[in-house]
Amino acid sequence: MKKGNTIFFKNPPRILSHAAICGSKETEGILGKYADVTLEDDMYGESTYEKAECKMLSAAISLAIKKSRLGESGIDVLLSGDLLNQIISASFAARDFTFPFLGLYSACSTMSESILLGSALVDGGYVKTAVCATGSHFASAERQYRYPLELGCTRPPQAQWTVTGAGGLVLGSGQKGVKVVNGTMGTVCDYGVTDVNNMGAAMAPAAAKTIVSHFVDTGTAPEDYDLILTGDLGALGSRILKDLTWEKGYDVSSRHVDCGEIVYKVIESEFQGGSGAGCSATVLNAYVLTKMDAGLYKRVLFAATGALLSTVSSGQGESIPCISHAVQLEV
Amino acid sequence: MQAELLAIFLQYLKAFAVGGGICLIAQIIINFTDLTAGKILVYFMLAGVVLTALGLYQPLVEFAGAGATVPISGFGYLLANGAMKGAERGFFYAVTGSLTAASAGVTAAVVFAFIMALIFKSRTKRN
Amino acid sequence: MTGKTRENYNENYLNYVKTQDPPTKHLKNCASAFGVGGLICCIGQFIRYMLQYAGLTGDELAGSTSVILIFLGCLLTGFGVYDRIGRYAGAGSIVPITGFANSVTSPAIEFKTEGWIYGMAAKMFTVAGAIIVFGVFSGVIVGLIYFFI
Questions:
Q1: H/E element holding A204?
Q2: What is the pTM of this model?
Q3: What's the CATH number where A69 sits?
Q4: Is residue A248 part of a domain?
Q5: A191-224 confidence digits (pLDDT tens)
Q6: Which of residues 16-75 of B touch C (CB under 8 A)?
Q7: Adjacent-strand bridge partners of A330
């Protein structure tokens, strides 16, 4: 059933298992205690950053499958994507598995998009199980979107830090696990922000739009949720989001938490906090879903946000179109 | 002896003040606009070329020494100075003079960068 | 980007975003840029004195000074120190010639994983190439102007 931009699942698919891997810097934050694998070495024993990112993603996928006890033959499809050009990490990680792969690109909101699509496939009865995964690596993202790592340039105060990490989860039907009740598909939203260092400000309108349309479509209010989790808006973007939703008559301030804002221990030195596809993927899979399994959160709205830019588009002076997809998770 | 030491100290002070001042101007420009490091380097180099061509940079070099030659505007000074000197010798040297003067810097950058790339590996950073 | 009304809205939002921007620490930034930039120039002056003491003069002296500074810049980049200085000093480490060396060395080290020719060598001047291009071009123009007047 569809109402507005929200699709409601008849037999809500369940998250059978989830797994996350995070880098050494992330380990010091809240993820350290919850992640399945914490890396001492961000290279993960590989020779290049891209290979490390791919290996992280692949490891997150196999860990999630292992924890679900389904085995590789029990998985029907993999939905995955990442930040690199031609989503090489996801495609190359899919090389390690025998089940089919559907590549997605939705920048940093890949996690929620894959959950949304995976749930639709499972609920529709087309597949029994689906794996949703994504990840990012600081060094590979920095290399592709910004400057070489050794270049001595300053980071402006609006800048965020790409999270090194990957997360994956297995969707399926069953009696146990967190339910994916419904999902709101986002529309591309561009308010004309051109500053590539100010992703929070660029993405906040997209997040606000999706969250508000989710409230309208489902007839819920912010108070109905234990947690409204956005992807990687950072401290600045979160402030803007609160203002924008307040303007529409929804006060999310008491329920809203941003993955990027909480992922690192000391926010000051990282400026606005974390970003990247791995940010929401690791926080959701390591922290939030573990807490939901324990029953600490009953109802969570997960709205990851993505900035759909490339180095070419920003070089040509284009503004940054952004998107946000939301899924409602319930115990 | 004492006067000589004082002159050296004064020269350091001048180099510090002028060199630091050029960096300060760049920092102020970065703070108030969204120019990236690459653009700043180009603009300062071009500023060095223009000021030298107008005859304004030479006195600064004489005054501050390394304070004026070490910043990237000094590279522009080198280029423009080479071209101006070349122009006195003929058309060919007017065209090639700038790069001839800058050849030491460019060669050093290429050679040392190559050697460093041979020795070192890129490493990720955590802060 | 369709419709004038939307552009109007953009403007409002952008103005609003500006008010939300975290403040730039002007004083601290400028002080560290001035200090580090001045210090690098003093090191340059020191090298210059040493070379002068060794008997170099004129163009040879100026050239050798920048060669040594470029070497130091490359070495610190290789050790991964220069980007740390850059984070702290901002323009103070970008503008001196060592910053030029850093901008040549960093892509060279970074992109050697893509091969020696198309990676390391071709990408070496991704940042610094602009300086060479505009430097040579403007130098030629200055030369021609001085030749014809």
A1: helix A199-218
A2: 0.89
A3: 3.40.47.40
A4: yes
A5: 888 888 888 999 999 999 999 999 999 999 999 9
A6: 16-24, 26-31, 37-38, 40-42, 44-46, 49-50, 52-53, 64-67, 69-75
A7: A179, A299
